[in-house]
Amino acid sequence: MTDNPDRTIGVAVLGMGNVGAEVVRILDESAGDLQSRVGAPVELRGVAVRDLGKPRKVAQELLTDDPAALVARDDVDIVVELMGGIDPARGLIRTALENGKSVVTANKALLAEYTGELATAAANRKVDLYFEAAVAGAIPVVRPLMQSLAGDTVERVAGIVNGTTNFILSAMDETGADYGDTLAEAGRLGYAEADPTADVEGYDAAAKAAILASIAFHTRVTAADVHREGISSVTSADLVAAKKFDCTVKLLSICERVHGTDGRQSISARVYPALIPLSHPLASVNGAFNAVVVEAENAGRLMFYGQGAGGSPTASAVLGDMVMAARNKVHGGRGPLESTYASLPIAPIDDVPTRYYISMKVADKPGVLAQVAGEFTKRSVSIAAVRQEGAGDDARLILVTHRAPDRAQSECVAALEDMDSVLKVSSVLRLEGTDD
Amino acid sequence: MTDNPDRTIGVAVLGMGNVGAEVVRILDESAGDLQSRVGAPVELRGVAVRDLGKPRKVAQELLTDDPAALVARDDVDIVVELMGGIDPARGLIRTALENGKSVVTANKALLAEYTGELATAAANRKVDLYFEAAVAGAIPVVRPLMQSLAGDTVERVAGIVNGTTNFILSAMDETGADYGDTLAEAGRLGYAEADPTADVEGYDAAAKAAILASIAFHTRVTAADVHREGISSVTSADLVAAKKFDCTVKLLSICERVHGTDGRQSISARVYPALIPLSHPLASVNGAFNAVVVEAENAGRLMFYGQGAGGSPTASAVLGDMVMAARNKVHGGRGPLESTYASLPIAPIDDVPTRYYISMKVADKPGVLAQVAGEFTKRSVSIAAVRQEGAGDDARLILVTHRAPDRAQSECVAALEDMDSVLKVSSVLRLEGTDD
Prior knowledge:
elongated, Alpha-Beta Plaits, Dihydrodipicolinate Reductase, domain 2, homodimer
């Protein structure tokens, strides 16, 4: 592991979709720069693809449909995994690490489940496992959290880390169109996949939340620990109502250190669509852009903003990792791996203090507001703002609560649903990004 | 340089001002966390101060007024230099590096002159020289540029990296007060030093531009290479006029890859107050906050935002570096040092394409605009927008040009100053952050 600038660093790329194709292109076009930055030549040894027959912009002899054989080659020092999914990626990465190869991956679903297993394999062989591209594409978030903030105490990470849902919510806000039409439009424009479930139901954002929470709080957090709600029930009426409270609606991935009244700490990791004030830095993050706000004890509030998806931006993050892994191969040493020493417990969503926005159709008669307010008082949830709108059959009550345990908030909603004078609870969203 | 978790990492801190005091506090309060993150205990060996008699929040026996003796101690592995200034910091850091100690510094003035010398000393002994805190305080900028973007090609870095001047310009914009009064107010509030020259004349921002340009373009850039103009000539009238063009005024540090018509590349590093469109992400960075926008070929546009100064935020960056340097001491390896392989030439400001905003008092008679426009046409500078305001003795012409070499722009201004019908060129600022 000492300096050896004479060696050549061999790279294997697994998967040649949007990101893989860009990685292969840049490896070729920037070979000179990459060599200068690494301190040794970097050579592409091969690219594993599913379909060898498909025309691709890479020399045919570099292609293989046997990723295991490619990973096993002695002249491969770094494996760049961009195939996605759990299997066979998991086994290939493990084998690579166990054989002393460093790995760069953008596979958030895999990392959100198996970082522990993979990081252990990397630690055993003293090699790198880098994954900047797994969260927020080109935006450096993993490395700043893991390294730049290594001497600080992170209190909260809140981000817009899914471009598809942010595109949909931004478009609904702008056009007034409803969810279904906007999703269809997003699909036509290439912002939503044929099966958009992973994005719109928050699975992608939850995997990223698990990765961010793990790093921020030095605790192993998996996707199953993340409370998850998607955007499919957000209506255009919610976006209109949000504006009346000087807010907009965003799908947020939130990782929070929860300070219990007994002084004990726990972690909340959660994904849901929420109202945030228009003055909040995340409110102006529109379209397919991503942004992550980090709040740390000493650093204060930091924001990272940029393109969270797409071939070239994601390839930029992959190649930054690859250069660092290659440098370590040449000069010795390695980057930090999983840090789980804090082992904080996960706070169930019920215990996490939240704020609610509730919109309901009510009977147009005197005393309804007092009755509604009574249900909140009973559960020690205080109301921050109320709007009464419409009249007759269209009488509506919209209210926003102060912070209280989520369980108390959701019990208030259940009580409202049981009230005769509340005809329908049309919408319930949380409110984030406020100080009180 | 192999794993040795049993060793203790000894740290010497040079200087105990705002930042030093916070570093010492956090080293003490977070000892357990730091040990877990480093993989070995971290111990403060001593703090060098100028005045031993001053009361400080650290055990008296740790204080010394002999920094050279502290740096020379065998049980010091990492030197944290926070004294500022060129001497004796330069010699102390060199000695530390030459003796195999890693160094963390926030000393931008020193780095803007002597990174070459210091990085060479670090490279010879295979130790770290980290300086995240030297640019934009708590905001991770150095590490993302050096590591996360290591596989990309940076085209431009533009930042608000001086809190004092940003506080003054924001306050002038908000209150309409003039420069002198606002500077005095900033001094009273602790946002400007007794001698504000380094801030208001752009020396601080220029040192940071030199550091950023060096990293972004893999070329050694020193403060002398940076074209520098301060904010002392910005008037409240400029801020009012800027608004009419949907702009505001910010002191920008700009590092740009200039693509010559012959295909050759050069670097422009420059600091000056400039108009930027209100829609630009830097326009809403107000008060003492800092932000840096990076544009890279593949990553696209990234923005980093946060607190650029202050004891705790800067200490956060210092400690992040310290943890990484300590990890390398324990686990082997080291971070990237100076990278100067590209060795691009520096473009003189005259050759750099810029846009100008020019405000002038003119004679209130027909034909003045045509005359003025003629001077621009002669020099192949095209005018993007013109406003004629006032009348009689208060007739004014405000114009904004399209992009052209800065020399041609400044020659237009000189020609205007010679025109009889132009009574006074009251203000000249550049316009940045537009695509055309």
